[in-house]
Amino acid sequence: MKTKKATTTERIGPPLIAGEREMLRAHLDFHRATLALKCDGLSDEDLRRQSMPPSTLSLLGLVRHMAEVERAWFRRAMNGEDVPLVWSEKGDYQAAYDASTATRSEAFEAWEAEVAHSRRIEREAESLDVIGHQPRWGEDVSLRMVMLHLIHEYARHNGHADFLREGIDGTVGA
User: Fold this and answer.
1) To 5 degrees, how large is the angle CA 18–CA 22–CA 27?
2) Considering the entire predicted model, what is its pTM?
């Protein structure tokens, strides 16, 4: 078993009582921090370790995927930006999962940049009722729905991250 390095990610628990927007924001940030915590103290090689063939799922793949999710929902759907996906100009959302040659620095740099854009877009929105358009669905969506959807995406993928991390060095929880 590998020696565990120090945790560098700060994760703040969401408030127990708060307004809707503050609660959604806090839960989304909690889940973002959880994904980062699952990656703390691991080498690039560890972060690229795949779950099981034929899956290419890895911790770095999850970070890259969540960069795409942040971009697709906040920048593209809510802000109407005409930007390509981070790792696929052809619009292939699965491309992000293949992190076989990725590094922590490139994956986290992209993810952190997309999270910063998402936070700015959410902060600048007048309310949770602001409407964007999700071209993949061909439907309009509210900022409220987007935030709930991202909480769902992170929670689901953080479950995958739990198993991936345990398989790497036995770390469980958090």
Assistant:
1) 100
2) 0.92
